[in-house]
Amino acid sequence: LGAKERTQYQYEYLLKQGGFQLKQLHYTQTPISIIEAIPT
Questions:
Q1: Which residues make Cβ contacts (< 8 Å) with residue 37, sequence separation at least 6?
Q2: What are residue 34's phi and psi, to 5 degrees?
Q3: Which InterPro entries does the UniProt record give (predicted)?
Q4: pLDDT 10s digits, 1-40
Q5: Which has the closest alpha carbon to 7: 38, 28, 29, 35?
Q6: Residue 35's beta-bridge partner residues?
Q7: The predicted structure's pLDDT at residue 39
């Protein structure tokens, strides 16, 4: 499906472009992380 690993900085940049701010990045014991963001 075209998934890509991204750094926290890359997520912050992408969210900012969409009008959001990264609040917290939750790492799990699986390959999946949870991104918590708020509108700016």
A1: 15, 20, 21, 22, 23
A2: -110, 125
A3: SAM-dependent_MTases_sf
A4: 677 888 999 999 999 999 999 999 999 999 889 999 999 9
A5: 35
A6: 25
A7: 98
Which residue type sits at 32? Answer: I
The residue among 28, 27, 29, 18 whose CA lies nearest residue 38 is 18
- Cα dihedral sign, 15-31-28-32: positive
**How distant, in Å, are the alpha carbons of 1, 2, 17, 18, 40 from that of 37?**
23, 22, 13, 11, 9
Please check whether residue 37 is in contact with residue 15, taking contact to mean a CB–CB distance below 8 angstroms: yes
Residue that has been written with the tokens 């940049």 in this structure: 13
CB-based contacts of 25, cutoff 8 Å, min separation 6: 8, 11, 33, 34, 35, 36
